[in-house]
Specification:
The protein is mainly α. The protein contains 16 helices and five strands. Strand 1 and strand 2 form a beta hairpin.
Amino acid sequence: MKKLCISKNLKDNIITYGIVILAYIIVQIMVSTGNMSSLMQGLLVPLCVYVILAVSLNLTVGILGELSLGHAGFMCVGAFTGAFFSKCMEDVITIGLLRFILAILIGGISAAVIGFLIGMPVLRLKGDYLAIVTLAFGEIIKNIVNVLYIGKDSNGLHISMKDSLSLGLEPDGQVIINGAQGITGTPKDSTFTIGVILIIITLIIVLNLIHSRDGRAIMAIRDNLIAAESIGINITKYKLMAFSISASLAGIAGVLYSHNLNSLMATPKNFGYNMSIMILVFVVLGGIGNIRGSIIAAVVLTLLPELLRGLSNYRMLIYAIVLIVMMLFNWSPKLVELRKRFSPRRLINRTREVQ
């Protein structure tokens, strides 16, 4: 029985990796043959960012079972720490790929540390209270970045929360983070290939965690916290583990996002409440706890508004209808039962029984 379970998990994981690799190959063929518009090519890196964010949030919402609305805050931490490092080291580390890898590591670690610090008090809350606190955290991070001024000269780094003049920089000094104007001139090191590699790394981390002993402990906490605690599972440890890993992956997505822009600003559109809700929509529509579904939902909902752009005023109407249909398809009890009845695996079993 255990061998069958392991082989089924391995098969599902291979299918998930295969879908990502196949999609990458198809996109590369379309780009090389000129069958993809420049507008769609510009969406490839953001698409990878949203997939990583959806998968990482599903770890908190679907696997841990806690509702977090501050995922954009962790993305913001990763984006600004990664961009800050790249901007400071642009003249020191001239190899772009090496600098970008280090920025990814720094962004991921920074977001994980913030996630750990936030998680210690926050994860004691439940339900709506946890959602409200994480939402407030995301807004706090965004607003702190908007009033932060950091410059660099021969004397080192200068930090202020007033304005750029109060930094007291020398004539040859450079303002790196300029308050609400954010960071400009970040090296554009993000590519679709790197984005796909980061998606695969994210999937390896999340899927291996889910199917590990720690993952089973996390899901036990989700299913019944009291029962899990009664058999000796360390609730705080596993909650913090899942929350920190999810935050770290969101930070990595933020680094990928920041290195795809010439100017990075902590606006509500980029890192605010709407971004957190959009990531949550990917998770819910794809299926809570369904990693492959999160990937598909992120891709479909990111590309759909652009594919419908030619329909002008009807574009958002069709988008809303698709959202409703997807929600019904995933969560309506009768449709769920119908999908199970006509699933390929059940049809194959029926065919075998007939024979």
